[in-house]
Amino acid sequence: xxxxxxxxxxxxxxxxxxxxxxxxxxxxxxxxxxxxxxxxxxxxxxxxxxxxxxxxxxxxxxxxxxxxxxxxxxxxxxxxxxxxxxxxxxxxxxxxxxxxxxxxxxxxxxxxxxxxxxxxxxxxxxxxxxxxxxxxxxxxxxxxxxxxxxxxxxxxxxxxxxxxxxxxxxxxxxxxxxxxxxxxxxxxxxxxxxxxxxxxxxxxxxxxxxxxxxxxxxxxxxxxxxxxxxxxxxxxxxxxxxxxxxxxxxxxxxxxxxxxxxxxxxxxxxxxxxxxxxxxxxxxxxxxxxxxxxxxxxxxxxxxxxxxxxxxxxxxxxxxxxxxxxxxxxxxxxxxxxxxxxxxxxxxxxxxxxxxxxxxxxxxxxxxxxxxxxxxxxxxxxxxxxxxxxxxxxxxxxxxxxxxxxxxxxxxxxxxxxxxxxxxxxxxxxxxxxxxxxxxxxxxx
Length: 445
Ligand SMILES: Nc1nc2c(ncn2[C@@H]2O[C@H](COP(=O)(O)OP(=O)(O)OP(=O)(O)O)[C@@H](O)[C@H]2O)c(=O)[nH]1
What we know:
Layout: H1 4-17, H2 21-38, H3 45-48, H4 50-57, H5 63-83, H6 86-98, H7 104-116, E1 124-131, H8 137-147, E2 153-158, H9 166-169, E3 181-184, H10 194-210, E4 217-221, H11 228-237, H12 239-244, E5 245-255, H13 259-263, H14 274-280, E6 284-288, H15 295-308, E7 313-316, H16 324-327, H17 335-341, E8 358-365, H18 371-385, E9 389-397, E10 404-409, E11 417-421, E12 428-435
Parallel strand pairs: 1-4, 1-5, 2-3, 2-4, 5-6, 6-7
Antiparallel strand pairs: 8-12, 9-10, 9-12, 10-11
Helix pairs in contact: 1-2, 1-5, 2-5, 5-6, 6-7
The protein binds guanosine-5'-triphosphate (GTP).
Domain CobW C-terminal: 359-412
Pfam family, one: cobW
Domain CobW/HypB/UreG nucleotide-binding: 125-314
């Protein structure tokens, strides 16, 4: 009879040979966990703390068991090297060496050397732009497109609500054509539309190859409620994506005025606090909206950020005015660092739950709004439900005006701005995010 662990080991070897590294991790981890039981260990240290596992069991293992474990750690080291977590791979090679592997010391040395090397290798760099609702992500995206007007940048734009507003707010440059802007509405790319993210990335890359218009980079703007971890995992979970693209960094926009409030928000059991996750996974933090707070508050915000992500680089800004070198081409995403923080990062069955008290409401109607009635309605909305609103935004056609109007109410919903720009003549739309169940928006016209 073939043991379960042996079948898993064969699958892991095949995945390694075919360079399906993410699948390989799933196979090798489960086969090793099964093998730990064979040698009388019920814990998961065989994969999570290999050094301690080998040290404890080495003297008791038979020669045959040593040989099996040696092979397992070598295969796991090779798979993890394929994913780019060289520090973690070096630990596996050291275990293989302790179990008698010949030449494992060479692999340890080369894994350690690879840690210092630059990543990329001809792949397209991807930046994940995250940050809570209204923190300034679209403002930053527009700045990037303006400063890099000579570069071909693909954009994936994800909105939580069913009405997409941000695509109207993006001021695409000459090389950012419709072909390389992909909009994903009505769900979060960290969960419900994650499959669309993978499909979108593949389509973008395939089009660029087919049309011989290589991409200089891809930027993914997540919803303000996204957990960045599953988005980052995408770059390891899909083989095609892994071969063609690499995650350059996770850039988190932080609203200096509201961050502490969002970090302190109590969530129901099992629900992650997105603001905490976004800070924890950040490679760079753009501390935005500094114009709205004083120095003492900024210092307090930085202190709170450091408590979650000690070594992250932070820059203070207003209107998302940040040096591009701080956020792009940084090669900052480090799988080893993420694995130290979240051991289950590479597991493909991770549970992820959004706070379902936060909902969205979208209105998309044809016609023009009446300015005075709109203002009356906004005043009513602000008075009645202002404290419940995290974020409202929209693009409007106002009666008697040629321009299209952008409607913005960031953070807390305690202020509304209505300003014009460009040329208009299309339907009106609002999107609101509120706490505790949806609420009815009166028709805006
Ligand atoms: N006072 C102030 N307002 C800002 C700053 N940066 C951006 N804003 C405004 O804040 C609002 C929200 O900015 P966006 O860039 O749309 O924020 P976002 O993170 O893309 O918002 P969502 O996509 O809805 O999560 C807009 O009205 C911006 O003009 C800033 O530094 N200070």
